[in-house]
Specification:
The structure is a single chain. The chain is an all-alpha fold. The chain has one domain (3-285). Helices cover 77% and strands 0% of the residues. The chain contains 12 helices and no strands.
Length: 291
């Protein structure tokens, strides 16, 4: 078989999987918004991790070796941060326009670049520094600080969630070299569920049958999405796949308008475009060797 055609097929599969991930993420945001008036973000975090864990239990039963890891303690730290990031985004989805929160979520690569520079002593290329500055201006466009007397609480939660997501990526960097993708996914779900149960207990209110259905769908989609992202990045370069995530924004905008009547103003579109450009510059710079 032609190695070039095999590579192209793998890249196409990776892109297709990321398109599916973008769609599931958009549905995830809509579900959170739909249940958030009555279900606390900590409860949503618990049900999401619980139903996700149920999805991978057969794998753990069939292959218990998947739990063999070199980073047990680090998995616990990662799971705790993951839960905090999810809850922050859930709180953001409940309080702010879905498209604005989605746009802010794309700042994670910018935080990763800054974090790698500060904490991992990586020397970023000039182009990435420029991209980080561009992304910062994009965030300001979405936050609209000149038009609001105070910054929207929902969008501040989104910034927190994005920052924590970046910390998780930095934590994962040394782990992916020794733990398999399946081990990373299974450990995350297995540890997050019991941790999430603790705060959920204090904010628990029994969901209705309809809410249980939506929460179940969200948990299943979350587990599937995590697995698809992991597999996609094993098939194709990150610089090719990362921009696909931005499909989430138009998908979320359309669903938010059709279901909740939310519209997106020009500031949000402009800010999202600037953040997208910054992230695209960072992803593209990975293709070329340092000069």
């Amino acid at each position: 078989m032609n190695p070039v055609s095999t590579t192209n097929r793998s890249a196409f599969t990776g892109v297709a999987l990321m398109v599916i991930v973008a769609a599931t993420s958009a549905i995830d945001a809509v579900i959170v918004r739909a249940v958030s008036p009555d279900v606390h973000p900590f409860v949503i975090g618990f049900t999401r991790s619980l139903f996700g864990l149920l999805i991978v239990l057969p794998l753990i039963w069939i292959r218990p070796s998947v739990l063999r890891s070199n980073y047990s303690i680090r998995h616990v730290v990662r799971a705790t941060l993951k839960l905090a990031s999810l809850v922050a985004f859930f709180a953001a989805f409940a309080r702010a326009p879905l498209a604005d929160v989605t746009a802010i979520a794309f700042t994670a690569p910018i935080f990763v670049t800054i974090g790698a520079w500060v904490f991992l002593s990586e020397q970023p290329r000039k182009i990435r520094i420029i991209a980080a500055i561009i992304g910062f201006f994009g965030v300001l466009l979405v936050l609209k600080p000149g038009q609001n007397s105070t910054l929207p609480v929902g969008l501040l939660f989104a910034l927190l969630g994005s920052f924590l997501a970046a910390v998780i990526q930095l934590l994962l960097k040394p782990m992916v070299g020794r733990d398999s993708a399946q081990t990373l996914v299974v450990w995350n779900l297995a540890v997050t569920a019991p941790i999430a149960a603790i705060p959920a207990f204090f904010f628990w209110s029994m969901p209705t049958a309809e809410q249980w259905f939506l929460l179940t769908v969200q948990g299943v989609l979350g587990a599937i999405s995590m697995a698809l992202v992991t597999y996609a990045f094993s098939l194709a370069e990150a610089s090719l796949l990362a921009p696909i995530e931005f499909l989430r924004l138009p998908l979320v905008a359309v669903l938010a308008y059709l279901i909740f009547g939310q519209t997106v103003d020009w500031n949000s579109w402009a800010g999202a475009a600037v953040i997208f450009s910054a992230t695209l510059i960072m992803a593209s710079s990975a293709r070329y060797p340092r000069t």
